[in-house]
């Protein structure tokens, strides 16, 4: 049995344990996140902006199916789910006519006996997934971590490629396009590409790219998806020297603040640590650096994985971190932000999945952290 089959088998076991604990007849998974999780990284995505895809997972105590229609079935079987439909495979295929969605619902009622269905996107009489299964999704198996490392490496290389090619005369949209091209060429979905040029940097935290020129500085943000896993990272490019005058030195000073604020969060990323404790520490760090309102001006990040943020930390998020859970913090100030995707290791250390060694960096509390790329 290869690693993907072992992973799928293990996850089917987790799903069936949830069925046993809740007395439900089936689990039905529709989201792009849960589909990737249950299939060891396969994709049901066609429309990138959609939360749900063109296939679903249905699991009962005895059987497991991929539900899809006749438009998608052959491609999924050839390219996403090799072996699906084989009698020995973990998943069988159930294919309905594309114009007859009622046929799928009839099949679901038949195999579940009209019993209780748990779902990641519950509709009608369906019930939400239990917390135990939600928590399992957020902790990476070794095979998932290997895929995540690949996604992180490719995303960081794409970021470096895009910003090395950037020009001050480009528009924000051109830079976003270069970033998306670099991701697509590596087989990653550009789920999010934010760009802010010199004028918009101090104004907006979520700067969707516009048609104005970058100017002297730009921020590029990626949420890059591969195998269903999200690599989140932020980088800056500066045209000229940051030490040239007082105005650009202030730009550099803001970035030093966010390095140090982020370091407070990273130092607390330990198994058993509540997310709201890290949020509170970030608030205190902003205050100590002279920016007491900054904690309210943008979300600070949290856990990541099969969603760009599985849980966004806030004052009430008492969920705790665990070994092999991924986090991405993004403390920010007007004109400065920092972000990478880390995995919490067994010894309490952190592995940075999205740092390209070719990118310029400084040591902050013993960790390599990105600085603005200066292009003369």
Structure description:
The structure is a single chain. This protein has 376 residues and is an alpha+beta fold. The protein folds into 2 domains: 3-136, Creatinase/prolidase N-terminal domain (Creatine Amidinohydrolase, Chain A, domain 1), CATH 3.40.350; 142-375, Creatine Amidinohydrolase, CATH 3.90.230. 34% of the residues lie in helices and 24% in strands. The strands form 5 sheets. The chain has a 6-stranded mixed sheet with strand order 4-3-2-1-5-6. The chain has a 5-stranded antiparallel sheet with strand order 11-10-12-15-16. Strand 10 and strand 11 (311-312) form a beta hairpin. The longest helix has 24 residues, at 142-165. The protein starts with a helix and ends with a strand.
Largest β sheet strand count, sense and barrel closure: 6 strands, mixed
What sequence of helices (H) and strands (E) makes up the elements? Answer: HEHEEHEHEEHHHEEEHHEEEEEEEEEE
At the fourth level of CATH, the homologous superfamily of the largest domain is Creatinase/methionine aminopeptidase superfamily
CATH class of the largest domain: Alpha Beta
Strand content: 15-25%
Give the terminus-to-terminus CA distance.
54 Å
CATH-scheme architecture of the largest domain: Alpha-Beta Complex
Kindly state the percentage of residues in helix: 25-40%
Supply Rg. Answer: 22 Å
| Broad structural category | alpha+beta
Features:
376 residues, alpha+beta, Creatine Amidinohydrolase, Chain A, domain 1, 2 domains, 9 helices, 24% strand
């Amino acid at each position: 049995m290869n690693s993907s089959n072992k992973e799928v088998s293990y996850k089917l076991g987790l799903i069936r344990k949830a069925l046993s604990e809740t007395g439900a007849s089936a689990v039905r998974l529709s989201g792009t996140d849960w589909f990737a999780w249950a299939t060891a990284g396969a994709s049901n995505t066609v429309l990138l902006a959609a939360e749900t895809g063109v296939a679903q997972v249905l699991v009962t105590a005895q059987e497991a199916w991929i539900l899809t229609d006749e438009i998608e079935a052959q491609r999924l079987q050839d390219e996403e789910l090799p072996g699906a439909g084989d009698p020995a495979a973990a998943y069988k295929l159930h294919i309905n006519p594309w114009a007859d969605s009622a046929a799928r619902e009839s099949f679901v009622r038949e195999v579940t006996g009209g019993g209780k269905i748990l779902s990641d996107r519950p509709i009608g009489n369906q019930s939400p997934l239990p917390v135990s299964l939600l928590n399992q999704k957020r902790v990476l198996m070794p095979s998932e971590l290997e895929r995540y490392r690949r996604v992180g490496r490719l995303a960081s290389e794409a970021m470096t490629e895009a910003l090395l090619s950037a020009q001050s005369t480009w528009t924000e949209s051109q830079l976003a396009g270069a970033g998306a091209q670099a991701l697509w060429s590596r087989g990653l979905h550009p789920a999010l590409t934010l760009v802010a040029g010199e004028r918009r940097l101090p104004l907006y935290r979520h700067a969707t790219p516009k048609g104005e020129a970058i100017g002297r500085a730009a921020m590029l943000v990626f949420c890059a998806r591969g195998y269903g896993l999200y690599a989140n990272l932020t980088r800056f490019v500066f045209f000229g020297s940051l030490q040239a005058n007082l105005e650009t030195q202030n730009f550099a000073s803001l970035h030093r603040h966010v390095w140090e604020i982020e370091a407070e969060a990273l130092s607390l990323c330990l198994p058993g640590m509540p997310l709201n404790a890290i949020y509170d520490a970030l608030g205190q760090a902003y205050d100590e650096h002279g920016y007491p309102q900054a904690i309210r001006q943008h979300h600070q990040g949290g856990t990541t994985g099969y969603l760009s943020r599985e849980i966004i930390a806030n004052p009430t998020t008492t969920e705790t971190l665990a070994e092999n859970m991924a986090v991405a913090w993004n403390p920010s100030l007007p004109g400065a932000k920092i972000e990478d995707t880390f995995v919490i290791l067994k010894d309490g250390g952190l592995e940075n999945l999205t740092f390209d060694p070719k990118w310029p960096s400084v040591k902050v509390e013993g960790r390599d952290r990105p600085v603005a790329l200066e292009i003369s």
